[in-house]
Design brief:
The structure is a homodimer of 334-residue chains. Chain A has 334 residues and is of the alpha/beta class. The first copy, chain A, has helices spanning 8-15, 19-25, 34-47, 53-60, 77-91, 108-117, 132-140, 164-176, 193-208, 223-234, 248-261, 295-310, and strands at 65-70, 95-100, 122-126, 145-148, 158-162, 183-187, 213-218, 242-245, 271-276, 289-292, 319-322, 325-327. Chain A has 12 helices and 12 strands. Chain B binds a DNA duplex (30 and 30 nucleotides) through residues 5, 7-9, 17-24, 26-27, 30-33, 36, 51-61.
DNA sequence: GCCAATTTTGCATACGATTGCAGAATTGCG
DNA sequence: CGCAATTCTGCAATCGTATGCAAAATTGGC
């Protein structure tokens, strides 16, 4: 029950040097003679000393903490993002303070507020947006913010997304190959940029091919809502024979309804295309054709940009769009 | 580009009071007169002041940060755990510093080491274990550690798990109702306590009913490994007609192989029971019978215990086991 | 071996808050 | 209104580390 953690002063005393020497030994760029370094190394090892990141943060003004805000983790896209972002940041010596902004917690505002209390070095908002007053606040405190998989009109906020308009066009192309008669769209949350852009590209490409939307329903990116929306679309006299869903998570819900509840055949009766390419899309039970977001590229891009911003570099590019990739599997006809 | 964040000194100056008064205003138990409180409130509001958590942590020795260690997030059980743990801790004024201990990062040791550098108030290891030297280190620094969904022989470490032996017995009971002839087990990672205990209960209950294992393979709690293991078990002349998998994630992989690859019928040819009751188990495509871990109870228990420990209370109970619940769906016969 | 140029080293201060202590202000009661 | 009891308030020290500055030690060239 020793309780007290070891400090640099303890190490200094034990090694017979000054506290500053110990500090310098643990600071990459500093100059320490070999003799001292060795004495300090030994003493530190014996005492099990490790520098206190919090104390260091007070002086340097860098906490090496990145605030990561996520709405929910039900859709497998998010756990994958969180895992990869976290690993990438860890590899760069940063760590992730995780904040859930789910409905149970309330709004994003207070959540971001409490992030700022921790004096994080930067913030990544995953599929979430930010009021401009809050964005101003971050800017005032010099804390870079990056949006991941979501964009916002505000010119100032940096964002990394897929090229969603292009992705929507791809989805249209994938469905059009099968010669569909009635094309439907199952939309995600209407307020999101991702939804708006994907639908925009989708509808535009349909129009160019002389088609228009047969029907449309909203699933808000949630499984249960999407299942309801699918019922609304398909449990009618003339159901669609092609469906583009705003993301894979909703596509899986739609497949469950279409095949299991309604007994329709995929892709013979209905072709389905999703968006994201989450791991489950590749599972044999679903075997979902989809538009892949290149997660690894998106993650390394956002981490790279954020760290550059944290370290004071001001890159000109604010909106980074990654090209998506069509993935043909078993839910489309050709 | 004001850069400098607002400090309590700024607020004090603006409000015409001492810095300590400002500090007291933001400290729940402290005494401040109404007049001062009002002046401070106004000044703080105008300047947008919020106390620096890091500075506070230095004095009080409490960072209000909890280190959360997770191996990976592919299995939906983990995102759900992370989400709920995070929310529960947020509600109690704590926040989560997330650490991935996946293979790409290497061992758990250095990860936990860097957690300690942040002077966290406590640590939750989700389905991970800890060397005893590291555990000693945490104890020396007075940092409580809780294991979640994993146990370890060491008497000292606190752990919250399901009653896995009992859960294994339940799984046996669920399969035995269907009058199986050949019962197989698809095991998770053999080094884990969860695996050992679930299998122990399962085999014991089979024995009591006059049965024994027909075959067994190892899936290490990974989708791909589990799919291979399922092929090993079922792509043979006399395949099993009942299967218990170490968790739901592997059960889904097994179902994909059994139904789609091999064309067997579930539950007519093979009955399947999983463990966890992850959200996907309830999806119509799987409709998996399983043994539910009561996530909400487990989460509130572990958070409750951890916070009690952080705040100095020393509860006697170290190993907390939550009773699991059988969930009958469409993959079992009766 | 001497002196200038270069490294190392320690001292002292700062970061932004909390908190014990003692004096100032307020309150309560006869 | 006076005095004791109580509540507020400010001063100053403290947490654990980083860092500018000046003194001490080392190095190098001749």
């Amino acid at each position: 029950m020793s309780g007290k953690p070891v400090t640099s002063v303890d190490v200094a005393r034990k090694a017979g040097v000054s506290q500053s020497a110990v500090s310098r030994y643990f600071t990459p760029g500093a100059s320490v003679s070999k003799k001292m370094a060795e004495k300090i190394r030994v003493a530190a090892e014996e005492l099990g000393y490790r520098p206190n990141v919090l104390a260091r943060a007070m002086i340097t003004g860098r906490s090496r903490i990145i605030g990561l805000v996520v709405y929910y983790l039900e859709n497998q896209f998010y756990p994958e993002a969180v895992e990869k972002l976290s690993i990438a940041l860890q590899e760069n010596g940063y760590h992730v303070l995780l904040f859930m902004a789910s409905n149970t917690v309330g709004d994003v505002e207070p959540v971001v507020q409490s992030i700022l209390d921790y004096r994080v070095d930067g913030i990544i908002l995953v599929s979430a947006s930010m009021s401009s007053t809050l964005a101003d606040r971050c800017k005032a405190q010099n804390i870079p913010v990056m949006l991941f998989n979501r964009d916002q009109p505000s010119q100032d906020l940096r964002a990394v997304t897929s090229d969603n308009v292009e992705g929507g066009r791809m989805a249209a192309g994938m469905l059009l190959k099968g010669g569909p008669k009635r094309i439907a769209h199952l939309a995600g949350f209407e307020g999101s940029s991702t939804q708006q852009q994907r639908e925009e590209g989708f509808v535009a490409a349909l129009a160019e091919a002389g088609h228009q939307l047969h029907s449309r329903a909203v699933g808000n990116y949630h499984y249960a809502d999407a299942a309801d929306a699918a019922r609304e679309l398909f449990d009618v006299p003339e159901p669609p024979d092609a469906l583009f869903t705003g993301d894979d998570h909703m596509a899986l819900a739609a497949l469950d309804v279409i095949r299991i509840e309604l007994g329709l055949r995929v892709p013979e009766d209905v072709a389905v295309v999703g968006f994201d390419d989450i791991p489950q899309a590749a599972w044999p039970s679903f075997n979902l054709s989809t538009v892949r977001q290149r997660m690894n590229v998106m993650v390394s891009t956002v981490v790279d940009e954020l760290i550059a911003a944290v370290e004071g570099e001001d890159r000109p590019e604010r909106k980074l769009r990654i090209a998506p990739v069509p993935v043909y599997r078993g839910t489309t006809r050709d």
